[in-house]
Amino acid sequence: MLVLVxxxxxxxxxxxxxxxxxGSAVGxxxAVGxxxAxxxxAGDGSSTSDGPEALIAEGIVERIxxxxxTDHVEALAIINAELDETMSGRQLxxxxxxxxxxxxxxxxxxxxxxxxxxxxxxxxxxxxLHNPANVLGIRAIEDTWPDxxxxxxxxxxxxxxxPERSWRYAIPNHFYRHYGIRRYGFHGTSVEYVTAQAAxxxxxxxxxxxxxxxxxxNGASVTAxxxxxxxxxxxxxxxxxxxxxxxxxxxxxxxxxxxxxxDGWTADELDRMLNRESGLTALFGSNDMRAIVExxxxxxxxxxxIASYRLxxxxxxxxxxxxxxxxxxxxxxxxxNSWEFxxxxxHRLAPLGVKLDDDANRAQADTARVISAPDSALAxxxxxxDEERAIAEATAAVVHAQGC
Length: 404
Ligand code: AMP
Prior knowledge:
Elements: E1 2-8, E2 12-19, E3 55-62, H1 72-86, E4 94-99, E5 110-111, H2 114-122, H3 131-144, E6 150-154, H4 164-167, H5 173-179, H6 188-202, E7 211-216, E8 220-226, E9 229-233, H7 255-262, H8 267-276, H9 279-284, H10 289-295, H11 298-321, E10 327-331, H12 332-337, H13 339-348, H14 358-362, E11 369-370, E12 379-382, H15 387-401
Parallel strand pairs: 1-4, 4-6, 7-10, 10-12
Antiparallel strand pairs: 1-2, 2-3, 5-6, 7-8, 8-9, 11-12
Helix pairs in contact: 1-3, 2-3, 11-13
The structure holds adenosine monophosphate (AMP).
Adenosine monophosphate binds next to helix 10 and helix 12.
């Protein structure tokens, strides 16, 4: 089965075609670029680490609304033309959409109908930059390939199992009832995929698996897994909460915003500061972990110290939240590739009995692996994430179940 995996942003459409059952490559790899749609109130690019064997075509259409590409239908026309070239006449079977916000309704991937599209649209206020773009992508597919089944896979869905003690903010209930202000969590597709891989690697049934999964890309979050399900996660109402990220601040005292608003800063300016100009970028001057590690100067050391300290605090807390984790799992760009950052975090977790195998931690590989020492109290794993594969598989499962 061939699934087109679509990640529609407001100014770009990222796509890949995946062969679900074999993972075999058909056609060429395309270009991979940054999604220009990031920032704002919600939405978060996840890491991709795709072997060419699973990748059939991949590319990016930039700056919708400028030049040749005036809207999402135009973007799809270009994608369609590229697919014609790279797929040697093979036909798509379905489309899987990465949809950022599923609100409280969607806990699983769903087959898209008009009613589902409208439901995604009703969630626009919770993800004003991303859900409208997803809807444009869905409608563009309807126009381009009206007979193709479409499935929505939600970034929030895996966190629908959060207990109320985790998702509720301690503010008056009116704000939840009227605005839907609560913790939703993001990166769910990646975390669910990585959790399943980690349980398999350790030979543990997923329903018995307790772990802390750190998805450390440009956006970063950490999730507490109990019995294979998400019970707490560091991103909240939006992807801004939690860890120090590439360009986002993570946790801070909300009074800072009130203080600055009273001094004349606008909501848009503060949004930009917190989502685009903070995090590693503010501390070091770049969001590239490689540059930080290479620099090795005082500023770089302080940056690593702040980011690893914040993550270690969360891991310690989540170890308690799941009544004892069996494993700590690192994934995404930094989690998969930066042995220095993993070492800094693990060092802080020594009081929990965490010990790395230094050689295993330093070794570069693109497979799931254990990097802890045999006498470590918790296993430490690196598991490459593959969000597109997870979306393609979820799409295929829904399409089969619905008999499309
Ligand atoms: P992602 O959003 O998952 O693509 O991750 C982006 C982050 O991963 C950036 O901070 C990159 O600097 C970091 N990253 C990617 N490759 C490496 C590497 N080889 N070593 C250290 N950090 C890396």
